[in-house]
Protein 1
Amino acid sequence: MGCSASLPDRSSGRLGGLNPDNSGGNDAKNLRVKLVLLGDSGVGKSCIVLRFVRGQFDPTSKVTIGASFLSQTIALQDSTTVKYEIWDTAGQERYAALAPLYYRGAAVAVVVYDITSPESFAKAQYWVKELQKHGSPGIIMALVGNKADLQEKREVSVQDGAEYAEKNGMFFIETSAKTADNINQLFEEIAKRLPRPSLPDMNAS
Amino acid sequence: MPSNSDSSSSSSSSTSSGEYQTPKRNSTSIDQSLDAIENQLASISMFQPDSLLESEPEPEPVPELEVSKEELVNGSVNVIEELPAKNEEGESLKASSSRVWTNASEEVEEMEAPPSPSSSGYDGGRGSSATSGIEDANDDDNDGEIVEVRSHGDSVGASDSQAPWTPGKRHGDEDDASISWRKRKKHFFILSHSGKPIYSRYGDEHKLAGFSATLQAIISFVENGGDRVKLVKAGKHQVVFLVKGPIYLVCISCTEEPYESLKCQLELLYGQMILILTKSVNRCFEKNPKFDMTPLLGGTDVVFSSLIHSFSWNPATFLHAYTCLPLAYPTRQAAGAILQDVADSGVLFAILMCRHKVISLVGAQKAALHPDDMLLLSNFVVSSESFRTSESFSPICLPRYNPMAFLYAYVHYFDLDTYLILLTTSSDAFYHLKDCRIRIENVLLKSNVLAEVQKSLLDGGMHVEDLSIESGSRSGSVSPHSSQSGLATESAERLRDTFSGVGGPAGLWHFIYRSIYLDQYVTSEFSSPINSLRQQKRLYRAYQKVYTSMHEKGIGPHKTQFRRDENYVLLCWVTQDFELYAAFDPLADKALAIKVCNRVCQWVKDVENEIFLLGASPFSWRLLSL
């Protein structure tokens, strides 16, 4: 937050932000979706992404700098594909002011907390509010309680998470990047909630 | 320090240590008799390397050489004589103040010191015995080595372990009450002007709040008197202060590095902080003087510790120049061409690097990149593991370019060692930069640059063994062994025999050549007998010291310097175009060493289009800053 003042203001007002050139990218069968992960540092955002994209889990913590960009395509049962373009943001405080750069124009925001850390749950709620204020209208939000394998250290109950998500119209799931539990489900559930282009091409032509 | 160069040269450091004194001048140990041939040396053109053969310098005064030999033989005796004095000094200081850095902890040193009482029985600190907890306390960078040394105090020289450096903060459990913490040889602190800790190399910052407050009190006490504290000497310890607005930086060191070097290291540490946060972090202190900066630097311990580690292995930290990976000229050209192409499309700087060496780099028109910024940037990228995982986009600030504003860095690793940094002023340029990277990657693959880079990593650069003493036998290539010509004359062979196959001709062990015009340097590869990390570090410290003395403002700049101590002969030669620092066997012959230095310069000239980045010259920062 401390360095927010020094950011050049050039990006504000440009809704484009870090958005891929979407023209022609989407049709009814092949969706391309910008997804951003937000949450406190150390909750496992990068681990979730790496588990999803590469099927890997690295227990040594590597602090994300700025934001990492990865993409992964999944196929749904109705034979559509969804290509996620994922911005894995740094949870460090100094990057908080940069978050709009990454969530602006995002169709999906995944807000992550650590079920063993009430502080990270509070931080998740901060991000939800921020997204409600400044995120794209109609953004799909998911609340994710990560590190579900650490049951014995749990400090945020499933109920607390689910209730908060429900109140804010979010999709809720608990995951473990370590055991891969619910990771794919998370992204599949998101895919189901994506608005499908309603065959505008037919009308146009 | 038992094997410190000063202790054996004509100047005696043991008598003066402990007094408040001005930084030592190295001039006393410059061989005065060199003056006669100095002029000759300076007048020798690099293009006429043989001229020395024709004008053989006067035979040197014999006594000088003999003294050196004698001291070499008696090295360990000297050390033993020195010790009692130091111990006394430690005791007396300790008595006067328990909070001051008193323990003249006879560091086992990161070097092969001759066996001495210090390594086995010295009872440092506050009267505690050498418990396991402090076994590694004297360590600067490498725990393994020291532990081994301490546990075999009788065979100090035996340890040559090359344990890799572990990144990140270590000994985080320590604080200023820990004996181990107090015995560490080199501390770095960043604190705020209200005394709040921001960074400490060792120990937990929060536990060091009291210690930080003490440092702050010292600084403000002197400032209140309208003065500024730069250096405090306490026994073997130097405490160096640097004030940067609301940020205070302090180094406490007993490594005997010159004040100028330590100050320059603090400057780099500050620059690294600016690279992460920009100078506008000062505003936080304007709003709230008691602002706690530690959360803002969360997760960056590893960046700072990696920089501090590089102070002992990367000559760029004191040369203020960068170094290139040796590559065939067309290979580097191919890389440069595609980078130029990208820079023309709105990228401020395009930098292709392999570890800490530059493959090629290009700046937009009129944009200039300072070598120190390059050092800090590459340290930031290499030390932050997350860049290796996937392509990233992050704000960074180049302190010498514009300390107030962020640039945006696109970072992508092509393989384990080779990475691309694209810098832009535009926060939404990611997709453009990603496209640029794809274009660059295609060209690099097509022109085989990445494979050549890996090959160069394996082959290394200039090996002193490949240096021929005769001119005309150079093949003009850096690639190894291609130049081990059979043309070496009898005399050259005899020379090699004299030094039993160790190092290059005339006992040349290593050299650094810095091109002033290019802001680039090249070093020879380390080879026998400079094999261990500890020996390499010791050599760099020696270079650093001699670099400082060559650039000392009061009496410098010098043109040549010839130093002989029990570890090396160091020969420095500074001209308008280049600086050469060469390390020889301590028994090396002076006239031959000078001759070899001429050969080295010619060799560098011969292969300059492989070891340097020529032509592009984006380093017009000097012109711009005028």
Protein 2
Amino acid sequence: MTGEHILDVRKLSVGYRSDGGYIDAVRNVSFKLGREKLGIVGESGSGKSTIGRALLRLLPTARITAESIRFEELDLLNISEREMLKVRGRRMSMILQDPKFSLNPIRRVGDQISEAYLTHFKCAKADARAKTIDMLQAVQIRDPERVYDLYPHEVSGGMGQRIMIAMMLLTDPDVVIADEPTSALDVTVRLQVLNILDRLVSERGIGLIMISHDLNLVRNFCDRVLIMYAGQVVESLKAPELSNAQHPYTQGLLAAQPRIGGGRTPLKVLDRRPEWKEPLEVQA
Amino acid sequence: MKSVNVKNLTITLGEGSKAVTILPNVSFSVEPGECFGLVGESGSGKSTILRCMSLLFKQWEGEIRLGNQSVRDMPLIERCRTLQMVFQDPYGSLHPRQSVRTVLSEPLRIHKLDRQKERMERAITEVGLPVEFLDRYPHQLSGGQRQRVAIARALILEPSILLLDEPTSALDVSVQAEILNLLADLRARKGFTYLMVSHDLAVVDYMCDRFAVMQAGDIVEILSRDMLEGNKATHPYARQLIDASLEYDSAI
């Protein structure tokens, strides 16, 4: 961990409306983020994506409560939507899972990237275009001039995801939330995309929150890992120490992972215990 | 138990100038009771092979033999009782407005099988779900439970060959373990022949005896499972793929 914390979340709870009340999808989650790579792992429905969305206030109908959410000098809980517009996509941005669904199918990818820049900075279109092409180069797209004028259906999945990364890093944000950025990609392409993301994040000193269900990825890529179960953080660990996990859920997840050369004994299956859902306090 | 023989399988999709040859010329064979994996990047034609075998694509050329019969010569009823398929996405492959009972009873009705209730109950217990689940709808099931229902639907006609198209890639690690255990256990008990498409080599290593590495529609190399460790592949693409997976896997 280097420097001060960019993001400080205390006791964040997010409830989704359901008939006659709210159901808490995230309960009492606290963490701090410096200029580092923080992984959030958990199974589907454990609330990991909800945290990312809540931080960017992308959940208009949900009930978000917290003791405090501090982002640099801002108090994200209480600022107006007008101010939030200046944060979202500019100082804090989000890379989504599937480039096929997150890019507008009827606009050229380059225009979509420069739009991100033009929204936040006053400059000529030609300048934005130049910036975009530089950024496409930075995410190792060969021939960025040509790619600028392509439509989303003309690019491959790996390239689409690099375009998303370019779009999100163009405004030089302080925090990037990556929600399963590579789960739609093949192993070979996945490593490429991760390496690009890794390099850019370290060079620019961005705080990265990596949301994933892939333990391998998180342990290879992140500095710290939060493990979530049923809306709570059950454990917080340094990534290299993941194998020393104490919580039975984390241990179960590790054991359930098949590995190359791992033998044919039946894989360990999680024995879910009701007490894992009981309130607990993990400081990260 | 039946063997599978694929010989000179060729398929071209599209017409005229837009025609694309997806599989130029693919041949491989699978022993009875073997689990055979197909790996490769997206778009390399893995799923297309399964779709040709199950005649979801019909315009292919070449020969596919199940046991000693060509799949084209098999009457529909017999083909469906020999070969069944489990699809990738358990959220998309079950009809949202049909209960599990409807899903499972339809094949039984088409094939005019007796003891329907008993067969349904057996199929659902075999995949590790309680009998009461017959009256549930897909939205009342989790992803893993849906995939179990999809497997039960494939099992109910007692086929000898199962085609598995990335059966766990939409599932979490913990649920993936359950499904892989179930598939391994079913194979041990019933002696199915599996053809499994996957892009996760760790899964392939756990399930398969041999696997074919595909690139742009071609099988570049067929490897046995023990050649994964230390990467004993010879073809450059196969080596690259295995290296990437080993690197990815290495931390554990």
